[in-house]
């Protein structure tokens, strides 16, 4: 194994894979950097061999897609302005690039990129399988735990605050029916003891 392969880990390649138009793609600038060529050389090689790149292998980004992508990956360095919109390559387009960009480094990096795409595909399929199992468990135990879930939801809802009365409220002194009457009786009973 060469030193260059150890310098480009699969995680680094996976960070350069984006989802555009519901396709996992890599942008021409990232591929050129990995292949060790300039972006304009890569684009030139692709334009010379356009018949190898149908629309499901490679497409040019729209201005809106490019602006959205720039927000995701950050801004360009000072002095790095693109004259043309970037090209996006699907997994098949990246595989076709190795035949167009004919260098040893391009072939080695291409193998790593293919492994990264396969790894992403495995992760997505295992994620979908796990999600499906969780949904099955929810359906299976939903009826059994419905009472428990309802009780938890009831406990989680805050109690309703008492509503304020609408309109003008007169605050008057209350008549002393309870305590005042008792004090009066006590005074009378003490007075009778004194007599």
What this model shows, in words?
With 195 residues, the protein is α+β, with helices and mostly antiparallel strands. It has a domain at 3-127: Mlu1-box Binding Protein, DNA-binding Domain. It has nine helices and four strands; from the N terminus they run H-H-E-E-H-H-E-H-E-H-H-H-H. The protein has helices at 3-7, 10-14, 28-35, 39-48, 63-73, 91-100, 104-142, 146-156, 179-194; strands at 17-20, 23-27, 58-60, 87-89. A four-stranded antiparallel sheet has the order 1-2-4-3. Strand 1 (17-20) and strand 2 form a beta hairpin. Helix 6 packs antiparallel against helix 7. The longest helix has 39 residues, at 104-142. Mean pLDDT is 74; it is low at 1-7.
Short structural summary:
This protein is of the alpha+beta class.
Secondary structure layout:
Elements: H1 3-7, H2 10-14, E1 17-20, E2 23-27, H3 28-35, H4 39-48, E3 58-60, H5 63-73, E4 87-89, H6 91-100, H7 104-142, H8 146-156, H9 179-194
Antiparallel strand pairs: 1-2, 2-4, 3-4
Helix pairs in contact: 3-4, 6-7
The overall average pLDDT, rounded, is 74
CATH topology of the domain at 3-127: Mlu1-box Binding Protein, DNA-binding Domain
Q: What is the total tally of β strands?
A: 4
Biggest sheet: strands, sense, closure?
A: 4 strands, antiparallel
Order of helices and strands: HHEEHHEHEHHHH
CATH class of the domain at 3-127: Alpha Beta
Radius of gyration, in angstroms, nearest whole number:
37 Å
Oligomer: single chain
CATH architecture of the domain at 3-127: Roll
Distance between the termini: 118 Å
Helix coverage percent of residues? 55-70%
Helix count from the secondary structure assignment: 9
